[in-house]
Give the backbone structure.
Amino acid sequence: MRKKILRSAKMKIFLITYRILFLLIILLIVSCTGKKANVFTPVPDFSVFDISNRIIDVNRIADKNNMPRWLSVYISDGIAAVERLDIYNDKYVFIAMNQGANFAALTKWAENISPVYDFPMIAAARIEKRIISSAALYPDDEYGLFFETMIKNVYRGTYTGVVKEDAHWISIRADNENTGENGIIFMYFVLMTIERSSMQTNVRNMIGKSSAAVTVTNAQNSAINRLRQTFFTGF
């Protein structure tokens, strides 16, 4: 009888330990997934590509004049300047960039990047940056639980009307160790656009969904309402 009780107690301890370990594994997976989402960052508000004098090839054509207009403007002046081009006047522009020495892998990445599956992460990073920049306080204090809920929703969200318009690569002479043959790396850029009206509808719906799902203080609610009204100013 005593042995049965001991075996039963050991079994209970084992099950409790197993459940705790299982929960820890789940939390770890969720945590890692969230970190991976940040790999897709919004395009910069200013030029960070100090590469004009190092470009040696544009889509296998050495003439820099063959670089598409959107890419040359992006490299020199950033995403805001691209959105000011007449062709994109009524659109938001998102540019994903990847670089490395393995041209075949980069080409596959550019071919497979998806407006459905990859755009949410690219857009979410820009949305998150906009929310953070609008907060006078730390975002968790400014917006309460709304901030965390909104970020989760934008990373998981569905964005209608996204178009993958173009993709171009350049090769440059690099100044670091992570280069290929002859000190060369490739930079691949993928251009996606979405109508301004569609993007605004998508984001406003997410703001409404997120705010309805949480309880916040009066001050936090006021901050959320200000965000709702001004979100696209400077977006």
Summary: The chain has a mean pLDDT of 77. The CA atoms of residues 61 and 67 lie 9 Å apart. The longest strand covers residues 162-173. Residues 42-230 form one domain.
